[in-house]
Design brief:
The chain is α+β, with helices and mostly antiparallel strands. It starts with a helix and ends with a strand. The relative contact order is 0.13.
């Protein structure tokens, strides 16, 4: 082989190896990563961009939402044998039997969706069909395998339900 042919062949092989390595590195990135500013390079999302924004009072709020001592709702708003979902607080308050109130996080233990209704004795998640018992938050129907976390509440003589 002549010297120009060898040089050209090496150049082509080296360029191919670089292209393959570049493709392999690109393939390691997430499918939904986008090039930054049209530069063609994928950049990992910043921690703030990949997690939901927390309210400024999150440090003083119990996990699962709601502020301690804050009136959540009137006891009369919770049906016997059912419950009421408080979306903004990410809580669900139930009354399994007359005068007995329970409170659970409204965040499904399967994949973190919010439960959306309480009916027929269960707290229901719309995402994958998980159901939890109104009496104790235990799993009535999967795919969830863990119960809803219970929150302590107080019912005042005036009928106000607050987080303890």
């Amino acid at each position: 082989m002549s010297e120009p042919t060898r040089t050209a062949r090496r150049t082509v092989l080296a360029a191919g190896a670089v292209a393959l390595a570049g493709g392999a590195l690109t393939a390691c990135g997430g499918a939904d990563e986008k090039p930054a500013n049209g530069a063609g390079a994928a950049t990992p999302p910043s921690p703030a961009a990949s997690s939901p924004a927390a309210p400024s009072s999150a440090a003083s709020s119990p996990a699962g939402g709601g502020a301690t001592g804050k009136a959540l709702l009137k006891a009369e708003a919770v049906p016997v044998g059912g419950g009421t979902v408080l979306k903004d607080e990410k809580l669900v308050v139930t009354q399994p039997t007359a005068g007995s109130y329970r409170c659970f996080t409204a965040v499904c233990t399967h994949q973190g969706c919010l439960v959306n209704k309480v009916e027929n004795g269960t707290i229901d998640c719309p995402c994958h069909g998980s159901k939890f018992q109104v009496a104790d938050g235990s799993v009535a129907h999967g795919p969830a395998t863990r119960p809803l976390a219970e929150k302590k509440i107080v019912v005042s003589a005036a009928g106000e339900i607050t987080l303890a």
